[in-house]
Amino acid sequence: MIVARTRTGLCEARATLPGPVGVVPTMGALHDGHFALLRAARRRDRSLVATLFVNRTQFNDPSDYAAYPRDEAADLAAFETAGVDLVFAPSVEEMYPEGFGTRIDPGPIGADLEGARRPGHFAGVATVVAKLFNLTRPSRAYLGQKDWQQTRVIDRMVRDLNLPVDLVIVPTVRDPDGLALSSRNVRLSPEQRQSATALWRGLELAVSAWDDDERSPEALADLVRITVKAEPLASIGYAEVRHALTLEHVAVADPPLVIAVAAEIGGVGLIDNVVLGEGLVVDESP
Predict the structure, then answer these.
(1) Measured CA angle at 168 (ends 166, 171), to 5 deg
(2) What does DSSP say about strands 140-144 and 166-170: parallel, antiparallel, or unpaired?
(3) Which of 17, 59, 77, 277 could form a disulfide with 255 if both were Cys (CB 3.0 to 4.6 A apart)?
(4) 177, exposed or middle or buried, with CB in 10 Å at 0-12, 13-18, 19+?
């Protein structure tokens, strides 16, 4: 496995990789959700590139950036075990040299939900992902369903800027109690972690109601809100039912649909969602 620290080193190593090339962008603190992305890429592409960079420009809260878990040695070992061919692990100065001033505005699709909760977040995401795609030149990029709005922002950017990369969305990986895996989960105490399962419990109730023919977006969202608000340690950010691809409000809850929720528990921001509709995520069944 090659580890490149500079854009020049990355370019030289990338030139040696046979295509097609898949890329998995990460901020490290790897867990089974990341490994699902790596496995999906390893199955589809001849060469596999991973990126390892905690992108400060997508953190609107400096303390959140400072607290983000980092263990580069463990991450590099995990990448090697997963069969990664090339890791790009740049410094902040390499990605944002002195005088850097360009930012990508993701437009309306990044202004609501997480965009409203974390101002500037998706501009930071879109900018760094565009840079990483330009540098790694992948055929396909692999993203996790858990960050559903992020996948829509990146999809919009790829289409608007004519970037030659196909996106593959991999289903959310969960612990046995339903909690979506996240690098932030390590910051939760056992009691807080138990409270965090309310996000998934609320989503399950909404999906069950939808299966029973409930088609009121507000009624479905209320099931999630009530469940999260019942947890004394949780502060609800939002629970919304939206069109899965555009993230626009819907009058009737029919696919393609996303039911999204955000909450803060112990100062840790958590998100989760379910998507309803065919072909929105890859089918990873045996």
Answers:
(1) 170
(2) parallel
(3) 277
(4) exposed
